[in-house]
Design a protein that fits this description.
Chain B: Keywords: Transferase. The complex is a heterodimer. Chain A is an alpha/beta fold. Chain A has 21 helices and 14 strands. Classes of the chains: A alpha/beta, B alpha/beta. At the A-B interface, helix 8 and helix 10 of A face helix 12 and helix 15 of B.
Chain lengths: ~475, ~400
């Protein structure tokens, strides 16, 4: 019988609330853990070998607690100082201190550089701390099982040519070449993923990731028996990339739409942690609009900042709040500075929330007026589908994958069309009837997809031979 | 015994590039015939190391006022003109050397030093001394090459004038020679077309070739291990931009079609040009891991790489003459993937059992993929004699005969 092998390296190393790709790997692994007996989980070691993980360890890694390492952090002109004091690491505190005294200690012109340097160091330090915590947790999880036997290196996996090997996480970080080598040795059937080709097609929104991604997708073209794409858009984009670089033979690319994130409709406020309740309470005073997305240039928070500036100018105290949920990403230093200097920020009408748990997110969805998703380009748009699953209207950009993900149920606007964004947001803020009508249509029409649907479809795509 | 003086613009002591290898092989051929051969290489500044120079070589100061820095592509042309026009130490050194060597034959390798040779010959005629016979030998049609290589956007009057001077010089050298030697039939016809009286001189073709070599299996294994090679194609090229152009023209848009364990080993100075090329710069993360660039290698390592190559690449799309690399690739007995241009001077591709010819980029890339996918086919039984055709001994036989036949 063919066995399923799943590379869990990404999930093992990810100790924050999961972003889209991490969630996909986790949900698929969880499905296989429960429904596919004999599934083998593994991790890439420092030498590039895949080593097996015990099911008990896999359960621990796939538990929600694995991804809830830090308390929620709210950043806004009012809420940050008044309601929350996020726990800060030593390195972060050092740079907080430097940031506070920077202009006095160094020339003003050098201050942005110092701030960026601080951010880089903080990120690296945080990665080190997470890695250390992950290793410790693994050791602790393994401890009961190994009390009676000598500590040994986990066995190297040895799949057969009939076995399915899923490598669908952040493989460009871990090296797709390891799966290629394993396939050369064992002949196993490999399934790789394409979430999007944005770093290649839109390098201006992806830092310096174009080249690593081009090599990654080239390697998986030589490795995979099936590449699963999360949308027809990503499917077409990957096929176009393979034509651009002149590959002769490429594996079949099969679209498997992602699931709608799990909805926690009945999440209880009392069940929230204290820091989460504080973050929620701070938003209760007025209407808010939600944008769930990493704070990075491609996600086009810029258009929302302009809209909110305009809303605040026109409405003053009646201006609603824009709540941005997500990590700090790349390429937003200028925007971040502009945002913090704006009157709408000063008035507390823009709030950024980091380290938001699924439970808190459920409350944020339930409480918002509607959601927005003005991203310039996407491979799918998990948060837009999540909004629909909560029955909330999402105003989205007209990026092809967002149209695909939202099943044509949402107003779409070109990401740079400020007047139309302003008009649509003002319209749905002011016209409760229109909002209710849109929500009714979504509830009646939107077909949510469960992670089990996704997992079953992915397994079917993997097992189908040409 | 004939005394022959070769006039070149590069030294022959340690031959590396194609021109040096050809001239050195011709010198060896003359010596085997029992001729006394000397070489005067007029060197521009520090283009070559002092240890590469021989006793009669003449170094021209790079900062000499006669060198126009705007005409960097025409250094050889300017070198010949400088010696011919000089009234000082440079001319005296050149003339004294020729006086001492008293050649029966002056063998011009390319036309560059013809003005200097002409001045010396004219002085001999004026003094009533014996005049040597003149052999004009070239591995290119230089005027055409300079015109074709003219960089984009460089079409100014100065460049045009320099090209015209090269063409004039080449015609004069041909028309005053007793024997004209070309690299290919096509180039011989082009040189002949410059001449109003072709019947008054001898014409021969001596295509480029190589000295026999044999790869040592132990060295093949060593170099593979040292460079971490499994299945690889080999590309050898000097630091000449058209070599990089040809490579990327035939392999664009990227090397993604090579598997992660397949490599192209690039030997020679071309590697820097490969990495500066716009095709490489589009996908460096794909291309770089597929390239192995050991740089300049000694001859034994190069032979070992040839001996272990799954494919030898000849993606040559421009340039004159016949290619030494083609001869080397054919002689190696390894599968060769060539452009039609790479086979200039070597006749019909069907004659060479190891050679696959691909004219277009798509066919070239697909051919490389197919050649890497299959095991190296066995050589035909008579390959040992076939490959002898690309050795200097065979290719220079007509030249040896023609020079011997020149009346004293």
């Amino acid at each position: 019988m063919a066995h399923i092998y799943i590379d869990l390296t990404t999930s093992i190393r990810w100790r924050r609330p999961p972003v889209g790709i991490v969630r996909v790997e986790r949900e698929f692994a969880l499905h296989c853990l429960r429904h596919e007996p004999g599934t083998v989980f593994c991790e890439i070691d420092a030498a590039g070998e895949y080593r097996a993980i015990e099911p008990a360890q896999a359960s621990l890694i796939l538990d929600d607690a694995w991804c809830r390492a830090e308390p929620v952090a709210a950043i806004g002109a009012h809420v940050a100082a008044a309601t929350l004091a996020p726990v800060r690491g030593r390195v972060q505190r050092l740079f907080d201190w430097l940031a506070a005294r920077g202009p006095k200690l160094v020339p003003t012109a050098a201050y942005p550089l110092l701030r960026d340097l601080g951010r880089v160091l903080v990120d690296h330090h945080a990665a080190f701390v997470r890695h250390r915590a992950a290793r410790k947790a693994l050791r602790e999880a393994a401890a009961p099982a190994t009390t009676s036997v000598p500590q040994a290196v986990a066995p190297r996996i040895e799949p057969t040519p009939q076995d399915l090997f899923f490598s669908i996480g952040l493989q460009w970080h871990h090296g797709a070449i390891h799966a290629w080598r394993l396939k050369q040795r064992t002949g196993m059937r490999v399934i790789e993923a394409c979430y999007d080709t944005i770093p290649i097609d839109y390098p201006e929104y992806a830092g310096s990731a174009k080249q690593p991604f081009s090599e990654h997708f080239t390697t998986i073209a030589h490795t995979a028996d099936v590449v699963f794409a999360i949308s027809d858009t990503s499917n077409a984009d990957l096929a176009a990339f393979y034509r651009r670089v002149g590959l002769f033979e490429v594996p079949p690319i099969r679209t498997v739409h992602l699931a709608t994130p799990e909805v926690h409709r009945d999440a209880d406020v009392d069940a929230l942690a204290e820091d989460e309740r504080a973050a929620l309470d701070a938003l209760a005073a007025r209407d808010y609009v939600l944008y769930v997305s990493t704070f990075e240039t491609r996600k086009n928070h810029r258009v929302l900042l302009q809209v909110w500036k305009e809303l605040y100018r026109r409405r003053g105290e009646a201006c609603p709040t824009l709540v941005v949920v997500g990590m700090f990403g790349w390429g937003v230093n200028d925007l971040w500075a502009e945002m913090q200097a704006s009157e709408v920020w000063e008035a507390g009408r823009i709030v950024l929330l980091h380290h938001v748990s699924d439970a808190l997110l459920a409350h944020l969805y339930r409480g918002c007026a509607f959601t927005v998703f003005p991203s310039i380009y996407e491979g799918w748009g998990l948060a837009a589908t999540e909004s629909l699953a909560y029955g909330k209207l999402a105003i989205v950009s007209d990026a092809p994958a967002l149209r695909e993900a939202t099943q044509g149920l949402c107003p779409t606007i070109h990401p740079f069309d400020f007047p139309r964004w302003h008009e649509a947001i003002a319209h749905y803020l002011d016209d409760a009837g229109a909002r209710a009508e849109a929500e009714a249509r979504i509830r009646a029409t939107y077909v949510p997809r469960h992670w089990s649907d996704f997992a079953v479809d992915l397994l079917a795509a993997a097992r189908t031979r040409p | 015994m004939k005394r022959i003086v070769q006039l070149t613009t590069y030294p022959l002591k340690s031959p590396r590039h194609g021109g040096q290898l050809r001239c050195a092989a011709i010198r060896a051929c003359y010596r085997e015939l029992g001729f006394e051969v000397a070489t005067i290489a007029a060197i521009h500044g520090t283009d070559y190391r002092p240890s590469d120079l021989e006793g009669d070589d003449l170094v021209l100061p790079a900062d000499h006022a006669a060198f126009d820095p705007r005409l960097a592509r025409f250094i050889d042309l300017q070198s010949g003109e400088l010696i011919a026009a000089d009234d000082g130490a440079t001319w005296r050194a050149f003339a004294r050397t020729l006086d001492r060597l008293a050649p029966d034959v002056i063998a011009l390798e390319q036309p560059w030093l013809y003005p200097a040779a002409r001045r010396w010959i004219d002085a001999r005629i004026a003094s009533g001394a014996a005049v040597p016979r003149l052999v004009y030998s070239s591995q290119n049609v230089e005027g055409k090459l300079k015109r074709d290589e003219r960089p984009e956007g460089a079409r100014d009057a100065l460049q045009d004038d320099a090209v015209a001077r090269v063409e004039r010089l080449e015609r004069e050298a041909v028309c005053h020679a007793d024997l004209v030697v070309a690299c290919t039939d096509e180039e011989l016809a082009e040189l002949r077309a410059m001449d109003d009286a072709p019947q008054s001189r001898a014409w021969i073709v001596a295509h480029n070739a190589i000295a026999p070599f044999e790869a040592d299996p132990q060295r093949v294994a060593d170099v593979r291990r040292r460079l971490g090679l499994d299945r690889y194609a080999l590309f050898v090229g000097s630091a000449h931009p058209p070599n990089a152009d040809g490579f990327w023209r035939m392999l664009a848009p990227s090397l993604a079609f090579l598997r992660p364990d397949e490599r192209i080993v690039v030997v020679g100075g071309v590697v820097n040009y490969l990495r500066q090329h716009r095709v490489y710069r589009a996908w460096p993360a794909i291309d770089e891991p597929r390239l192995v660039t050991p740089g300049e290698l000694d001859r034994d390592d190069l032979v070992a790489l040839l001996g272990g190559a799954h494919v030898v690449l000849l993606p040559i799309t421009t340039g004159g003459g016949s290619n030494l690399k083609t001869a080397e690739a054919i002689y190696s007995g390894r599968p060769v993937l060539a452009t039609p241009h790479a086979l200039r001077g070597y006749g019909d591709a069907a004659h060479w059992p190891t050679v696959t010819v691909a004219a277009s980029t798509d066919v070239y890339r697909r051919s490389l993929r197919a050649m890497l996918d299959r095991d190296t086919p066995p050589l035909p039984a008579d390959y040992a004699s076939i490959r002898e055709e690309v050795t200097w001994q065979r290719s220079l036989a007509p030249l040896a005969h023609a020079v011997s036949a020149l009346a004293p």
